[in-house]
Task: structure prediction
Amino acid sequence: MDLTTLTIKELSEKLRKKETSSVEATKAYLKRIEAVEGKVHAFVTVTPDEALSMAEAADKRLAAGQGAPLTGIPIALKDIFCTRGVRTTCSSKMLEGFVPPYDATIARKLKEAGAVILGKNNMDEFAMGSSTENSAFHKTLNPWALDRVPGGSSGGSAAAVAALECAASMGTDTGGSIRQPASCCGVVGLKPTYGRVSRFGMIAFASSLDQAGPLTRSVEDAAIILQAIAGHDPSDSTSIDTPVPDYLASLNKSVKGLKIGIPREYFIEGMDPEVEGSIRKALDVLKSLGAELVEVTLPHTQYAVAVYYLVATAEASSNLARYDGVKYGLRTKEAGGLLDMYKRTRDAGFGDEVKRRIMLGTYSLSAGYYDAYYKKASQVRTLIKNDFDEAFKSCDVIATPTAPSAAFKIGERVEDPLTMYLSDIFTISCNLAGIPGISVPAGFTKENLPIGLQLLGKSMDEETVLRAAHAYELSGGWLGRRPTL
Ligand code: GLN
Result:
């Protein structure tokens, strides 16, 4: 029995029945990482010793009959989550040597639940990108086709799950960075409602958009992880203080009568025919299960990418001001004075995309331009949110493709940032509106590249999103498909 092919649910059952141990499962994953990491490059740091001691502790808990659903399950974290004593780089030279003195709330909660952390996943530097090519360290390759990108910015996390290097991983999503790589790598990716999960200790990119969530092999696994990480955190003033529902309780409820909104603006001419074909088939499956398809309209969709790249870069320019060579990480040695040290450190520490965004953000926030750009973008953001409020009056979830195309070739979009920015055209509005969204595998191109179906829900209604995705997953016929590596 290859333990690395199991879902969290399946492995957890085996652990509970003592058919295997966490140490055994952890060793199986470490072996798998050794075997395929040379091809996939999904990790920045692997921590075998820490993982094995967490596994031993988990086995003790399980032996005492005290395990939670995640106890003993080997997972990985995007290298954006601070981990006490373990280097946290955000895939940036700026933080190459940064060892946090504390855990992100998510890391702490997962550890408390007994999960085993195998290591830290590669990503686009400071989560800026859609292909993981912006990592300062190395590129991650798509396990389905090694000449293609895994998506981004949580590309390492998605690739690691697809390549069976961990049972699940944690990513972050500012404009699509959980859902889009999930779609590219044929795994499930869930972005919860803004504020549902604490951002404490998660290195900030755009604070009003960033949200953490799981990448998993099944929707059920996503629900299991959400259960463990959701909830109010006194350390994050934007986390929402309402009770966490039982996400597994409603998962198997029928979708009969569920209204699925199909936004006119997302099914447009010029769309990739293979993507459109797969999504239409997925919608037929949901219909055959008793869901009702209704047309909805999100009239401000065309402004989403522009609004996002104003809001996100503005917030990034402010958040990244802290990397000045004094407080964290890198400091260049040969500086002639304080100002020169700031400049040299930031020049040496940040990659091109990060610099581009800091410049864009600084520009749109500067006196004289603020009203024309940042303020205007914030106003249009409200209109985009209002569109969703209006649409959700006539439906329970909204279905769209996750990405306009399947995984593209390495290098294909690097020279053309605008084309790269369009990779998130279907995922960005969800972050601007703060609502939850999931990507679930929904077919393959002729070249055997995964395609994802995106389901968006009402604010704080992860339950319905998960239920619809789970129903589709069980009937869609793609569950358990794996790349051969
Ligand atoms: N690709 C988008 C960007 O480059 C989204 C990134 C993200 O969600 N972190 O900003």
Summary: The pocket of glutamine is lined by residues 127-130, 153, 173-177, 205, 312, 424 (CB under 6 Å). Residues 195 and 239 are 4 Å apart (CA to CA). The chain has a mean pLDDT of 96.
